[in-house]
């Protein structure tokens, strides 16, 4: 065998190994669809609770004369971003749940169509990151304001 044939065979073999690895990861991802959707629903529930508590806190801060107007505006903007992104996630979750057509697994969780989940997975991940970032920013700003409110 000449060196070109050997190197071609090695490259082809390496490409096949990479393709098989990608396929296995995709199959594992498909197997976790229902669990991933359940995680999304849990995170949405926690986001709604956080947004509700943050709304009460922001409303209380708005009445306080100690809080700078710029801080109150920043909190309101972050809260608005969080609520908007959570609403987008709600729409996606509702669409996915409706697509399940009432099918449930052994644990009673909705069986989400795997193809539809794969189509929306990237969008869901991006929205979750935005929600987490907004939640973290709001928590950080509220923690920074707390000492000034207590004195």
Features of the shown structure:
151 residues, mainly alpha, 2 domains, 4 helices, 0% strand
The total beta strand count reads 0
N-to-C series of helices and strands: HHHH
Shape: elongated
The low-confidence parts are none
- The domain count comes to 2
Helix content: over 70%
Rg from Cα: 23 Å
Secondary-structure content class? mainly alpha
Distance, first to last CA:
83 Å
Largest sheet: none
Strand content: under 5%
Short summary:
With 151 residues, the chain is mainly alpha-helical. The chain folds into 2 domains: 1-31; 33-150, no CATH class.
Description:
The chain crosses the membrane at residues 6-24. Keywords: Membrane, Transmembrane, Transmembrane helix. It comes from Pyricularia oryzae (strain 70-15 / ATCC MYA-4617 / FGSC 8958). This is Fungal N-terminal domain-containing protein. The mean pLDDT is 78. The longest helix is centred in the C-terminal third of the chain and has 37 residues, at 114-150. The chain contains four helices and no strands. It has helices at residues 3-31, 33-63, 69-99, 114-150. The chain starts with a helix and ends with a helix. It is mainly alpha-helical and 151 residues long. Helix 2 (33-63) packs antiparallel against helix 3 (69-99), helix 2 runs parallel beside helix 4 and helix 3 runs antiparallel to helix 4 (114-150). It folds into two domains: 1-31; 33-150, no CATH class.
């Amino acid at each position: 065998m000449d060196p070109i044939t050997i190197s071609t065979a090695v490259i082809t073999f390496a490409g096949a190994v990479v393709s098989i690895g990608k396929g296995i990861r995709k199959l594992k991802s498909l197997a976790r669809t229902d669990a991933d959707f359940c995680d999304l629903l849990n995170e949405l529930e926690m986001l709604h609770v956080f947004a509700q508590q943050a709304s009460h806190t922001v409303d209380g801060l708005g009445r306080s004369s100690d809080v700078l107007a710029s801080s109150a505006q920043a909190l309101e903007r972050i809260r608005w971003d969080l609520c908007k992104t959570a609403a987008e996630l709600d729409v996606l979750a509702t669409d996915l749940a409706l697509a399940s057509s009432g099918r449930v697994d052994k644990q009673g969780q909705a069986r989400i169509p795997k193809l539809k989940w794969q189509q929306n997975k990237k969008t869901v991940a991006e929205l979750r990151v935005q929600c987490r970032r907004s939640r973290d920013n709001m928590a950080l700003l509220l923690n920074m304001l707390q000492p000034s409110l207590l004195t």
